[in-house]
Input
Amino acid sequence: MKKIIVKLKENSYPIFIGKNILSNKKLYLAIKEKKIALITNNKIKALHFKNLKNNILKKENIILPDGEKYKNQESITKIHNYLLKNNFSRDSALIAFGGGVIGDITGFAASTYQRGIKFIQIPTTLLAMVDSSVGGKTGINHTLGKNMIGSFHQPSAVIADTEILKTLSERQFNAGMAEVVKYGIIKDKIFFKWILKEHENIKNLNTESIIKIIKKSCQIKADIVALDEKEKNIRALLNLGHTFGHAIENNLGYGKWLHGEAIACGFLIAADISIQKKIMTNTEYEEIKKILKIFKLPIKLPKNINLEKLYKTMLLDKKVKNNKIVFVLPKNIGSAYITNEIKKSMVMKALKNHAQ
Ligand SMILES: NC(=O)c1ccc[n+]([C@@H]2O[C@H](COP(=O)([O-])OP(=O)(O)OC[C@H]3O[C@@H](n4cnc5c(N)ncnc54)[C@H](O)[C@@H]3O)[C@@H](O)[C@H]2O)c1
Output
């Protein structure tokens, strides 16, 4: 088993990564609270509850319906109602057992219940293991926008059990790989090359390879979050591909492409701008494309998407200031920077180069 610490002074917490570790009671020492509720969804309950040998996880359960569309106020109310009706005091805790949706909902419910109670993340998708369970961003969607209501609330521990990934669909796994590849592009060329070399083992869910990708990804995210917890500056590097990705998801209709698929295409559009600015080589662009193809991630925009509309959606992003869009651009594989000085003509050229 591997352990990483997210260093945030009094909010520091461990991330445990290993095979069949959910029953290890020592990993739950961060919560000493007697009353604990586990939040999950009906799908994960059906797949994984029978394997939970640990009593902590079996205490009290709140089962939500499966899907992004339930990442809303109604689910928060359902959780809070349960906690109030069952006498959960400030000395109680929650456990999120699920993908990013369950993690974000549980974290937000924990941060708002009686001004904040503890919670533990047990991520069950690759995306949640390498990204959403770490860093303390919690929240729900509003009818007027995704992730619009939320808070920063760090978990007390994260427990990533690689065995859980065996039931995940290939498409969901590959969408998680987009975030893993992202860490290589923004911070670690050696890791990027290693993923290329090791891709067969990764696809076959070889335990050592999977532990390594989760550990490396969490370490890179933890280091960035430790420097900039509330995204005042460099945490924004984690948004590589996201300006384009969010616009794609929005224009296509949420759910058609998975988030990881949309940002993957965004990496290439961002890299295209870097080539136009002569800060990245074609060879590096081709390497990114190669890795995305390996994990069956999109390298072109969706068919018939309107490029002008896509640009307009980017202007509506919550990070836009004075009509200037903030972009994260790769400098080369292994480093990236943040800029709001990119001309519309360059963005449109990069979009056209990726239209079908
Ligand atoms: N808080 C953050 O920092 C952060 C970062 C990135 C993404 N997110 C959020 O995460 C969400 C996406 O997370 P996700 O991709 O994990 O989606 P998800 O939670 O919807 O899970 C995807 C699907 O896989 C199923 N599933 C989960 N674990 C499984 C398993 N082990 N076996 C089989 N099926 C399983 C789920 O029930 C669901 O149907 C979005 O809402 C996004 O906004 C948050």
